[in-house]
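Form 7-S
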Amino acid sequence: MKKCKSCQMEIDDKASICPHCRTKQKGQSLLSCQGIFLGVLVLCVLFVVAMIGGSKSSSSTSTDSTGIQRDISEKVNTPTPTDDPNPHFTDGTHEVGKDIQPGTYRTRKPSNGCYFSRLKGFSGSLSDIIMNENTDTPAIVTIAVSDAGFKSSNCGTWTQDVSAITTDKTTFTDGMYIVGTDIEPGKYKNSGSDGCYYSRLANFSGALGGIIMNENTDEPAIITIATSDKGFKSSRCGTWTKMN
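Output:
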């Protein structure tokens, strides 16, 4: 209990107005205001603490997210190692520079009905064919940087593994061969066969400019393959054997 500041009558400690004289108790009002103020202050402090805690949690999450993104970025930017040192591809129409890289490729096995062509466009017209060829035997082709595309059908796998495909460099049958790798330079004679075609090659572009000489014959032939020749091509000629 306390006394009213006006009438001095006893009133409740918490009374803000004297029930006897209806006088407002200023001291109590002040205390009440102070209580409200303190309550608001406590709520503000709790709100700030909550915000700081949430910020830390968000920062931690952001850090974790950034860490994940950094790991992904590092994986994307790191070239994927490959066990195959020789790029290769199979049948289809491929865009040079995107699907396949320019360079010299070969098929290491015979494949019946193989057709391939170097392309300068994808219109499908004859004017977009740089060169084309049909063969049943191992083939070699050099795809130029300027080529737009390359088409292969029934050829199997083309690879930049241009190591030897022969076991004897002095005797061989039909196919396209690298001089010095598959066969030795020198003078050769074939066993003879109808419709034999053979050519000495300056390169593997497949273009006429890559042919040093060529010949068609139905009789046994003799040819000297020079050390400077890049390749030799034989079709329906039987077996070539190096002469002593």
